[in-house]
Amino acid sequence: MSASSRQTGDLVRDRFDMAGSSALTVVTTADASPQAREDHARRLSALPQVAQVTGPDGVFRGGARAVVPGPAGSQARPPAGDGPVQLSVVPRVDPRSHAAQQLVREIRAIAAPAGTEALVGGPSAVLVDAKATVGDRFPLALALITVTTFALLLGFTRSLLLPLKAIALNGLSLAAVLGAMVWVFQSGHLHELLGFTPGPLSTTMPVLLFCIVFGLSVDYEVFVLARIKEAHDAGQDNARSIVSGMARTGGIVTTAGALLAFTLLSFGTSQVFLLQFFGIGAGLGVLLDATLVRGVPVPALMRLAGGLNWWAPPPLRPAGPSPAPRPPPAPVRRCPTARPALRNPARARH
Prior knowledge:
The protein is built from eleven helices and six strands. It is α+β, with helices and mostly antiparallel strands and 350 residues long. The protein is elongated, with a radius of gyration of 35 Å. It is a multi-pass membrane protein. Belongs to the resistance-nodulation-cell division (RND) (TC 2.A.6) family. MmpL subfamily.
């Protein structure tokens, strides 16, 4: 809150009209007649969320010309065939809002003058294109992460259920973390404590947060499953192997997760929005996964699944006979207590 750039930005947003800074830029890429250019500008200005359209043919509002270009105008009117033409479209809404993104789609849907192509730029257009780029590739990335994680855990545990359980619980942790980030940074809760301006979340930071938190969650999952599997392979039944594995890894996982989480949460003291978002989100995800998720749902679901935890199709089962269970320990034999010797030998003979 004490940074000069931050104070300047807040003052400008509160006291001055920011409509011009959020204007969209529409450029036609080829020659067009003056009448075609004017008709295109009129159609753009008639959109409900457009305040005005400014270009070489004048200023248009509500589908009609408001200012005629001339020597006193903003631009000289170019003749036909003079190359690309730029239009400035001022929206009525916040450039990061859903309405502004919808406006970009409506502008792109309007036909450009014959023989030309209309290109749309500006803050809202950049946001729309960034979301489209991330959204187009995100299903592929999600599929690769899920399949790779499932294959690695399947080869490690020789179980069909345990990898599915790990992926489902990791997804549950991520959903909780992303929901908390929306509640804090987009809805504006705790903004006075943390010192940030609420607004829509960045397009790329949730993806980065997803990858880091998911990777750390799988890491802790491997720690826990390794000890449980070792106990089960040694001959313990399902319930005892869960107890043994959790007892051996509980303190390590909780301590390691707490150290990493508090280190990441310290980024929340920064005055940089992206650092705050990443630090608090990753720290909360690690803390939630290393304590609550590993301590309650993981052993509870494995206890309910019973023998299904270790089932796999025959091709995926380990080769060779299963290790024989360890025999129970033999009872401890105690030596009989020697009878005390008689003090009077003569009485013993009688």
